Amino acid sequence: MGSVYDQNMSSCTLMLVDDHPLMRDALRNLFDAEPGFQVLGEASEGAEAVQKCLELDPDVVLMDIRMPGMDGIEATAHIVHQAPRSKVLALTTFSTLEYVVPALRAGASGYLVKDARHEEIVSAVLQVREDEMTLSQSVANSLANNVLGDVPVPSVRRSWNEPRNTPPADSSAASRQSYVPELTGRELDTLRWIAKGLNNNEIAEKMKVSHGSVKAYVSQLCDKLGARDRVQVLIAGIQSGLVKPELTEDLTQ
């Protein structure tokens, strides 16, 4: 397996969270064999993950969802609120909306299922660190169908304290549909490429601008759409009727 790590990038620090020791060992072995990665620590349940994340300050937390004690969704919400520099990448067996939607609402920057190939996991970690959107294909399809109304939205009961500036989950869709922000041509182009599943580098090539410019456009979209990250930008853009998802490519590529 060839490495996807760019030697010009700084080392990526990680924390592994899973209640199965064999899974943590497998992930540690995977990243130990990859140049440019350092595993700072491990945790077997959510509360331990939050505590260690605050202590270790990793770039990316690979987070299982179903664990004894505090689950991965609640732990993600605490990490996003208390340690916003650390990105959370959900890595779990479950790809149904029952888990995907609350994980993304909690602040996960990506969602992969555990049958992902090794190179997909490595690439996803790097993309999450760079504020890219990372979703398994099955998750992307389910999410697109969800926000288009083709399947029912699962009932989500939050068991943690949301930040005060986060609107209630059941009112976000209605508020976004009633308000369509005015976007510049560049911002709308960026949103359309996001809806096609392109990452920042690919968007920069398509728009013939710098990577930094694309990151600025994404940041502006977050502000105007009231979104936290690229996943939320895509959801808000679809719900506002600005774009339709065309997620025919694997977003982890």
From TrEMBL:
Q: Which UniProt keywords apply?
A: DNA-binding, Phosphoprotein, Transcription, Transcription regulation
* 4-aspartylphosphate PTM sites in chain numbering: 64
| Polar residues compositional bias, start-end | 162-178
Q: Where is the Response regulatory domain?
A: 13-129
State which residue ranges cross the membrane. none
Q: Write down the SUPFAM superfamilies for this protein, in alphabetical order.
A: C-terminal effector domain of the bipartite response regulators, CheY-like
What InterPro entries does this protein map onto?
CheY-like_superfamily, NreC/VraR/RcsB-like_REC, Sig_transdc_resp-reg_C-effctor, Sig_transdc_resp-reg_receiver, Tscrpt_reg_LuxR_C, WalR-like
Q: Does the keyword Nucleotide-binding apply?
A: no
Q: Which residues form the HTH luxR-type domain?
A: 176-241
| Chain intervals for the UniProt region annotation (Disordered) | 155-179
The keyword Zinc is annotated on this UniProt entry: no
What is the protein's name according to its record?
Response regulator
Natural source organism: Kocuria gwangalliensis
